[in-house]
Amino acid sequence: MLDIFIINWRNKMRQPLVVGNWKLNGNHQMVNQLILELRQELIGVDCNVAIAPPTVYLDQAADNLSGSCIALGAQDVDINKTGAFTGETSAHMLKDIGVKYIIIGHSERRTFHKESDSLIAEKFIAVKEAGLIPIMCIGETEAEKNAGDTQVVCKRQLDVVLKNVDVSCMLESAVIAYEPVWAIGTGTSATPNQAQFMHKFIREHIAQYSYEAANKVIIQYGGSVNSANATKLFAQPDIDGALVGGASLQAKNFAMIVKAASKNNMTSL
Q1: Mean pLDDT, 10 residues at a time, over the chain (269 residues)?
Q2: What DSSP element (H or E) covers 12?
Q3: Which of 41, 106, 113, 172 is an active site residue?
Q4: Angstrom distance (rounded) from CA 234 to CA 245
Q5: Given Cys at both, which of 48, 133, 243, 260 links 17, Cβ 3.0 to 4.6 Å?
Q6: Rounded Cα gap, residues 59 and 226, in angstroms
Q7: Which residues pair with 20 in a beta bridge?
Q8: For the purposes of burial, counting CB atoms within 10 Å of the CB of 132, is it exposed (0-12), middle (13-18) or buried (19 or more)?
Q9: Which residues contact 183 (CB under 8 A, 6 or more apart)?
Q10: Which candidate in 108, 140, 179, 199 is catalytic?
């Protein structure tokens, strides 16, 4: 019964979202050129699109994106609003320069900066309190996958937020990005069936807290998404777009991914 309920809501309530995570890449000239090319490539697309350049270029990117269909995202955020926190950037500061989405909990932050589930939950709340949209990344490592712990890991990463907030309220205008760590930057993506299985699991787990939230929340796939595999991924009923890494640094490749989401959105109506 739950499966039918979720699928019936898909076309009416969930607009696909494709986000380009530029990571530690870019320079002044590249930001100008890539955004110019993206604006030309993405005219008329029927899905939500955003890019997340490095923090130092966000203000420049905001100027270049003005009047376009492309929203601005940030790659990370601090949990504090203001104060003696050298080198950090608050959600309110990011909002002030036009940021709409903030990526939190990316596996690279979890691994290299030792970010805990509880810290990521605090970031989620800080982003929501600022009136912005968190993109919360979850996903298992190769070792966890091989041990058969994929669902356990993803459930744990979700529950640290779901058990401590009003789910119906806090997942309104929120995004979950399922990114299996073993697929990020490796060139080896999860198959459409593997990705769909986990997206369905995630949605059903959220539904245990709130059916309404489960049907509304955008669940993206991330991990070696490219123009060759995007169409089949987006054809899956519970995959609502993608968080794209390396392929987002080339305008034509990123545009092809966005157009695949846009085409699937139009054909599913």
Answers
A1: 45 84 98 98 95 98 97 98 98 98 97 96 96 97 95 96 89 94 86 96 96 95 94 96 97 97 70
A2: helix 2-13
A3: 106
A4: 17
A5: 48
A6: 27
A7: 51, 244
A8: buried
A9: 189, 190, 222, 223, 224
A10: 179
For the chain, how far is it from start to end, CA to CA, in angstroms? Answer: 22
Q: What are the beta bridge partners of residue 220?
A: 177
Give, in words, the CATH class of 20-267. Answer: alpha beta
The single residue listed with the structure tokens 């810290």 is: 119
Q: What is the pLDDT of residue 264?
A: 78
Tokens at 226, concatenated: 């490219």
CA–CA separation, 244 and 173 (whole Å): 20
Query: What is the signed CA dihedral for 85, 117, 125, 154, rounded to 10 degrees?
Result: 150
Task: Give pLDDT, residue 36.
Answer: 98
Q: Which residues are annotated as a binding site?
A: 21-23, 185, 224, 245-246
The question of whether 115 is a catalytic residue gets the answer no
Whether 242 contacts 263, CB under 8 Å: no
Residues 68, 103: Cα–Cα separation, whole Å: 21
Q: Are 5 and 33 in contact (CB under 8 A)?
A: no
Per the annotation, the verdict on 28 as an active-site residue is no
The count of residues in the chain is 269
Side chain identity, residue 60 = Q
